[in-house]
Here is the input.
Amino acid sequence: MAYTPSPDRYGKMIYNRCGKSGVKLPAISLGLWHNFGSVDDFETARSIIRRAFDRGITHFDLANNYGPAPGTAEENFGNIVKKDFTGNLRDELIISTKAGYHMWPGPYGEWGSRKYLLSSLDQSLKRMQLDYVDIFYSHRPDPETPLEETMTALDTAVRSGKALYAGISNYRAPEARRAIEILNHLGTPCLIHQPKYSMFERWVEDGLLHILEEFGVGCIPFSPLAQGLLTDRYLKGIPEGSRASKAHGFLKAAEITEERIEQIRQLNEIAKKRNQSLAQMALIWLLKDKRITTVLIGASSVQQLDNNIDCLDNLILNDSELAQIEKILKKSPKVLS
Here is the structure.
């Protein structure tokens, strides 16, 4: 069935300026890290992306290795764009991709060399059937490649027209400062930084956010729900089929202690009193900081997507709630890494 976008798709979404740039991003963006690869149902992925756009999400975030299998999230997304976002609808989208993690065999298939980054971007554009992406990221710093080389590759990507903006991800504060300064010197300012940030992962507060504010760079946290911990899924322990129940994954069962579960329960009680889900409260807890441009969510269903976007209906955390949340978080038994 042909897709016709909702005519009032921009009516309720909030759009925030990305740093000092001319770009505005939706307060909620959709990441395709999980649930959009070759092992996933294509029509479900398609319905999620359609619904996201109908609700005002214009930013879709990918990386070369997203799947599984690696590259297939880009392939599927490209097919969806080709089928559903015809005509000038592409111009209403902000599409990002990244390179930095392992993608193909040999010495040129990961990290931060000019060879790898620019080859990867060409491959990503072919998979997505696009002429350009809006944002191209260095997905992680490379300890063995000069930062100047990595940033010059991003500069080349922008000057070639294959990307409109440059971004960095997973860069700690000192590395981020240097990367931003190099890009400024090259004349291709860093648009945005994508760090891991949530109630349970707060390293960005120890300097990085200040640097981004100083240089006018946007911030888009990923894993804002701590791989699902900041939802109602773990209130009674580790449920079957959850990420923590799987042998291979980013969330380990050993990290989910009784202390952590109790912490989640206490946070959930605050959310319930606000008539919100825990996930919704965790998202607005990030958005309360004006240095945060947009929060990057994942979704495995349209219902889950809607629940997360609905956080925008109740954005204000009062001083008492913030104090209660902080008290609970300070008791954190372990900081997830």
Q: What stands out?
A: Residues 271 and 281 are 6 Å apart (CA to CA).
